[in-house]
Design goal:
three-stranded parallel sheet; alpha/beta; Short-chain dehydrogenase; Rossmann fold
Length: 82
């Protein structure tokens, strides 16, 4: 099966950690970005987002804890405002 995401936008929460560190989000971000997808990456750890941005400069990063109500409002403004 060949699924294409070129020209699409995708949101990846938990994007800071690599698979070897008990996370899959960062690896998903890199794979989608490599495939031509516009990626918005969320993480609650700014250092992880900074290093991800250094690896994938075209990825939009958002520092957020999706468990927080304030995050939902801020995120909605950023995501849907574009």
């Amino acid at each position: 099966m060949n699924i294409r995401f070129n020209g699409k936008r995708i949101l990846v929460a938990g994007a800071g950690r690599e698979l070897v560190l008990q996370g899959i989000g960062r690896d998903l971000v890199k794979a989608f970005a490599k495939g031509g997808t516009t990626v918005v990456a969320l993480s609650r750890t700014q250092e992880h987002l900074d290093s991800l941005k250094a690896e994938c400069p075209l990825v939009q990063t958002i520092y957020a804890d999706v468990g927080s109500c304030n995050c939902h409002i801020s995120f909605a403004d950023t995501w849907f405002g574009q």
